[in-house]
Design goal:
Elements (H helix, E strand, L loop, with lengths): L2 H22 L15 E3 L2 E3 L2 H4 L11 E8 L5 E7 L14 E16 L3 E17 L4 E13 L2 E2 L1 H7 L3 E5 L3 E10 L3 E10 L7 E2 L10 E2 L4 E10 L5 E12 L3 E3 L4 E4 L3 E14 L6 E15 L4 E4 L2 E3 L2 H5 L3 E14 L3 E10 L4 E3 L5 E3 L6 E9 L4
Parallel strand pairs: 8-12
Antiparallel strand pairs: 1-2, 3-4, 4-5, 5-6, 5-26, 6-7, 7-9, 7-10, 10-11, 11-14, 13-16, 14-15, 15-18, 16-17, 17-20, 18-19, 19-22, 20-21, 22-23, 23-26, 24-25
């Protein structure tokens, strides 16, 4: 195993160890809940749990791109159809909350293929979300509605050959799920959750005079991502969050003719963030908090696609180019809180790995690098406070 890949998986193992360690030790005596150190008076309200004193800063994440769907065409043209996932850690926390909001991710220089020369597109993700608590705040259900500026899935092979890959607006896969708070103490919390992605996005369809030579895929695949989340507040100003998740597929993509099928890869994801409160004024009406966060995100495709053509196992372009991938990203951001109900945040994400693979022509694909850099923003309204 190469040193870079080993480093990526060691980071993932470290996130696993931290998350499981916090989960196992969550029932231990952390102490201090009854002391003045944990109590904060704001008007007539007195809280005794540190994890409830301040708004919980949701993770920024590193964008939703996973390994693309690759389609080799004639004349040395290689096209990548970008593939989006709604990762469990994105703008999520270990605590159930009543909130609605909007995420915007701008990913710069995403490799999309070549037509005479490499083509890089900027990919944008727009995501509306809502979360509602139940069972006295121990359970929450959520709903995510995504829109993208991403690869054109309804394509003309001749146009791709002449002009190269392009982007257009697209509706994504609706996501929903639940989160159950299994432990809460004065300085830590742990929850278990499940995220489900329904196949509501656009399907890959070839049109035009050459469409009969290329595959159109019917996407009726559901994705299921169970996860465990931990929050730890070791001091009044510091907080650490982690997520472990595994994204599974329910079935295979089917060609329109029914002759072939592709079962896409599953993904293991480990996410950890550390934050520090630069400023807090819990009783204020304007700026009530300012927190800086540093996040590390790992996404690994540890298996390969499986494909059948007329019942015979075949390899895919995604396997031959991307194969098993280990993506590691660093995100740094700032979150501001206004009054008791609103927050806004902005962050920058950069990939830390780049495994280069040569393909037809002069193009080189960095398979462990989804983009060159990304800007991530969040707007959240907490309606349950």
């Amino acid at each position: 195993m190469k040193a870079g890949k080993l480093a990526g998986r060691l980071v993932a193992a470290g996130i696993v160890a931290f998350t499981l360690g916090r989960t196992v030790s969550a029932n231990g005596d952390l102490g201090g809940c009854g002391s003045d150190r944990w109590e904060v008076a704001c008007g007539d309200s007195v809280e005794s749990s540190r994890v409830r004193h301040d708004p919980v800063v949701g993770m920024f994440g590193d964008g939703g791109l996973v390994n693309p769907r690759a389609n080799p065409l004639n004349g040395g043209l290689q096209v990548f159809f970008q593939n989006h996932a709604y990762k469990a850690a994105e703008n999520n926390t270990a605590l159930p909350q009543d909130r609605v909001g909007f995420n915007f991710n701008a990913m710069q220089d995403v490799y999309s293929g070549q037509s005479g020369g490499p083509v890089e597109n900027d990919i944008y993700e727009y995501r509306l979300f809502g979360e509602k608590t139940l069972a006295d705040g121990r359970l929450s259900v959520d709903l995510m509605v995504p829109f993208y500026t991403t690869s054109v899935y309804d394509y003309d092979p001749l146009d791709l050959a002449l002009n190269g890959p392009s982007t257009d607006g697209s509706f994504g896969d609706l996501a929903f799920g639940f989160k159950w708070l299994v432990h809460e103490s004065c300085a830590s919390a742990c929850s278990l959750g499940l995220r489900i992605e329904a196949p509501t996005g656009e399907e890959m369809v070839a049109r035009g005079a050459l469409s009969s030579f290329y595959t159109s895929l019917d996407d009726d695949v559901w994705h299921f991502t169970p996860y465990v989340a931990n929050l730890w507040t070791p001091s009044d100003r510091t907080f650490i969050q982690s997520f472990l998740s595994y994204r599974l597929t329910s079935s295979s993509l089917q060609s329109s003719s029914g002759a072939s099928s592709i079962r896409e890869q599953s993904y293991f994801m480990g996410d950890i963030s550390a934050g520090y409160w630069l400023f807090r004024n819990r009783c204020g009406r304007r700026l009530t908090g300012l927190a800086t966060v540093l996040e590390l995100h790992y996404t690994g495709a540890w298996d390969r696609e499986t494909a059948l053509n007329s019942g015979i196992a075949v390899d895919t372009s995604t396997n031959s180019i991307y194969g098993r991938t280990d993506r590691l990203s660093l995100t740094a951001g700032l979150s501001a809180f206004f009054g008791p109900r609103c927050s806004a945040g902005v962050a920058v994400a950069v990939p830390l790995r780049s495994k280069e693979v040569g393909i037809a022509g002069p193009a080189v694909v960095a398979t462990d690098r989804a983009y060159d850099w990304a800007v991530l923003t969040q707007l959240t309204y907490y309606y349950g406070r």
